[in-house]
Amino acid sequence: MAATSSSAEQLANSSRVLNLYELTRRRARAMPPPPMDDGDQPGDLATDTQVDADTGGDFFLNDTLNEAVIIKHRLNDDDRRRMLNDQAIVGTKIFVRYGGNDSFDESGKFMFMGQKDSAQVFQEHFGLDAQSRPDDARDLGLLTIIDRLPSLDPFLLRDRLMQSDYQIDPAYFRLSEAEAKRYRTHVIREFYPLAQIAFRNATDVDRLSSLIVDKMWEATDLKVLKPMMDAMEIPYEQSNDIFFSWKGFVYYKLTMQRLADGFAGFITSLQAAKPINMPTNIVRQEIEALRPRLIKALREEYETASQQIEEYDHAYRHQMIRLSKPQEFTKFLRFAPRRFEKLGASVAGIEHAQSTWKRRFGSQFEPVVPGQEFLEILKDYAEGLMLR
């Protein structure tokens, strides 16, 4: 399907956007040149890129996919009609540019994961044939995992792919080991009280709690967790998704805490921004109509996400941990994957808007921006919030 691409700024990496075109080139620039054979001359290019096994390899093995931009897109009713799962909240759009320059200011082609004719489109656009080529099956499996995530936050994406044994260069995740460790520490701290309650009558409660927390984090060897899951009436066959969703929910809670410091300033700056050099009156009218609706939608999305986190804290911290009443939290866990999807969609829309605005305008209180560019920014943010 043909489409007009967004500006480069709208395709900047965020919780909504995974710009593999940019990351693949950045990774290539950072890689040392391959060692020369005796017959090589300085400046010769090796046919195959050599990658240290410790760093992992390309994101996709298909060259076209490895230069795609993957975008999380809030689905409207028209979008859902084309999808196999018409109940999905978030879709995964794969965008590939036409032409040979780096500007992304030209037309391209896109498709949604999970659309009804996806197998045919993958064959036509990317030459993928999972039935006959193992590399293609590997790439399609990777896309399926990405599609099941509600956002493209590096921490969750990296964790999910590592669980599924994908060996991918860390450069694609824009996440330092220190950041990953910090997030892991926060999530494990959230798991720990439940593990202590589960083994409070054991003589070695601390050792067992630490063991269980590690299993909850890894979502492996779930038989060890089965007694606790049975007590909380968590279906064993759904436990992997439930524990990952809980982990993701805690991560989004941390993300919202980080976004809270700058959200009011972002909204104020967006409201005060001065569009100039309007190409037409139509652009001016669109900005005047869209900006107040978008600001209202961002505030509502922020309140919705905050309310979901408050409900979680009440069910877990208050009812489960303080009062030893597990009913509310058990109910929360049963629906954790759906709640994770909803919260992730909200957080991704907010984080994408706030981070790309800061990247473009810094701490400017009243930024001046060309009218057409400002309209494209508003439309991009509106798409992330399913605002039409």
Descriptive report:
The chain is 56% helix and 8% strand. It is globular, with a radius of gyration of 23 Å. By secondary structure, the protein is an alpha+beta fold. A five-stranded antiparallel β-sheet has the order 1-5-4-3-2. The chain has a two-stranded parallel ribbon with strand order 6-7. The two termini are 21 Å apart.
In short:
With 388 residues, this protein is of the alpha+beta class. Helix content is 56%, strand content 8%. It has a five-stranded antiparallel beta sheet.
Topology diagram in text:
Blueprint: E1 2-4, E2 17-19, H1 20-30, E3 69-74, H2 77-81, E4 90-97, E5 107-112, H3 118-126, H4 134-148, H5 154-163, H6 177-198, H7 205-218, H8 226-231, H9 239-272, E6 274-276, H10 281-322, H11 327-334, H12 336-361, E7 368-370, H13 371-384
Parallel strand pairs: 6-7
Antiparallel strand pairs: 1-5, 2-3, 3-4, 4-5
Oligomer: single chain
**In whole angstroms, how far apart are the ends?**
21 Å
The counted number of beta strands is 7
Fraction of residues in H or I helices: 55-70%
* Spatial strand order of the main sheet: 1-5-4-3-2
Structural class: alpha+beta
Spans of 5+ residues with little confidence (pLDDT < 50)? 1-6, 34-54
| Beta-strand content bin | 5-15%
Mean pLDDT: 82
Treating each run of at least 4 consecutive H or I residues as one helix, how many helices?
Answer: 13
Overall, the morphology is globular
Outline the biggest β-sheet: 5 strands, antiparallel
Question: Mind telling me the C-alpha Rg?
Answer: 23 Å
Order of helices and strands: EEHEHEEHHHHHHHEHHHEH
